[in-house]
Amino acid sequence: MKLKIFFQIVFLFTASLMAEAQELLTVEDAVKIALENNYEIKIASNDLRIDQQNVSLANAGVLPQLNATVTDNNSILDTKQTQSDGSERELNGARNMNLAYGVALNWTIFDGLRMFARYDQLKELEKLGDAELKLAIFTKVSDVITTYYDLVQQQQQLKALDTAIVISNLRISTADNRYKIGKASKLEVLNAQVDLNTDTTALLRQKELYANTKIFLNEILARDVKTDFSVVDEVTIDETLLLPELMTLAEKQNPQLQSQIINKRISELQLKQVKANRYPTVNITSGYNFTRTEASLGFTTQSTGQGFTYGINATMNIFNGGLQNRNERVAKIQVENSKIVIEQQLKMLESQLSSAYQTYLTNLQLTKLEAKNEDIAKENLDITLAKFKIGTIAPLEFREAQLNYVNAKVRNSNAQYAAKVSEINLKELAGNLSLSQN
Fold first, then answer.
1. Is residue 13 domain-resident?
2. What pLDDT score does 7 carry?
3. In whole angstroms, how far apart are CA 193 and each of 2, 190, 213, 369?
């Protein structure tokens, strides 16, 4: 008996050390780690940095181009020349050299304002990248919070199954004592043992699911999947959400809707660029060049020069087979499509919010109902257990009360988790998913 007590103390001490070794991971910490490590967020962040780098006057074609040029052409020829008076001159291996170097400036000073539309378009693309980054962040934050509270729910179910194991052990002990004093049959003991094995199997399956969900959360957090941690015990639900407020926020903040609005602006700027082709394009050129020419045979054997060059050229499309009209019609259709997509997105967002809010209200009601149901099941189990100990109730009725209590606890944790998921979905649709879930 003393040895058994010793092993129990050792087991409790070891379990306590293991619990202390586990990191308590709060939902805020999990979100913070995901924002720092998650691969999708990193990629979206880098894409935004690329968009930011693309916003420049040079990339839009507003600034001039200045190039250094060098040309050096040489030849060795067997040359024979016939002069105008009929005389001939001949030289084998005649060397010729033509060298030119300098700087050249090319600047488009007018292109129908296409360059300015392009610059505005680059800024809109930067805004689009920012909206896409927010969407990636919201999506991953939602995944993290949902998975985190899934673990909380599973942890609560583990406790419920642990309670079932304790009660089943008590039932076996009671049945065995009754069997030994002749007040119960061996069948009662065997049935109790079968039920304990059933409860143990359910507990092992739940532990497996809990461990796998931990691995999945570590994967989302982009850290070592073997990292062990514990989560909080309760699910905290925001019960103050109102549909009109959520709808107003969604129209201003929903990343997908904002992306479509930006895409419409990009289409309008693209139309401006297409229309710019109706106007002339004017370029100015300038430069400073050095030239040197040498020839072994000819009237001039050497020539050099240096100085400024400058000029202006203009081109204008007069007719290109009707492609200009076609391109403008296509660009206008794209603008019209972008307007349609915005209207569609608004209707879809309104529908999703309304549906999600109804689910949210139902789940809130279910949390209250299942909490009351758990209290009732607990009271019923206590009464049944007292009667079972004194032998005034059948084992089958006791098992039913036990299962009712365990199922009530599981349904309660499921209802809390479902309500939390509904809250997360609503805030994600509204573009108002806070990093703090308290």
1. no
2. 34
3. 25, 5, 30, 33
Q: What is the DSSP letter of 276?
A: G
pLDDT band at 333 (very low <50, low <70, confident <90, very high): very high
Return the percent helix, strand and coil in the chain, to nearest 5.
65, 15, 15
pLDDT digits (tens, 9 = 90+) for 166-187: 999 988 888 888 888 877 788 8
Is the same domain home to 265 and 163? Answer: yes
* pLDDT confidence bin for 328, thresholds 50/70/90: very high
Q: What's the whole-number mean pLDDT along residues 429-433?
A: 91
Helices (H), 276-391: 323-389
The C-alpha atoms of residue 427 and residue 257 are separated, in whole angstroms, by: 15
Q: What is the pLDDT of residues 104-122, one digit of tens each?
A: 999 999 999 999 999 999 9
Query: Which is it for the CA torsion 182, 183, 185, 189, positive or negative?
Result: negative
| Residues in a beta bridge with 370 | none
Range of the domain at 292: 66-80+90-110+281-315
Are 100 and 157 found together in one domain? no
C-alpha 340 chain-centroid distance: 26
The DSSP element (H or E) to which 86 belongs, if any, is: none
For residue range 48-82, list pLDDT tens digits in order: 999 999 999 999 999 999 999 999 888 887 777 77
Looking up tokens 């610059």, which residue turns up? 119
Query: Pick from 58, 114, 69, 103: which is nearest to 282 by CA?
Result: 114
Amino acid residing at 352: Q
| Cβ atoms 104, 64 nearer than 8 A | no
d(CA 358, CA 39): 34
> Whole-angstrom distance between the N-terminal and C-terminal Cα of the chain?
48
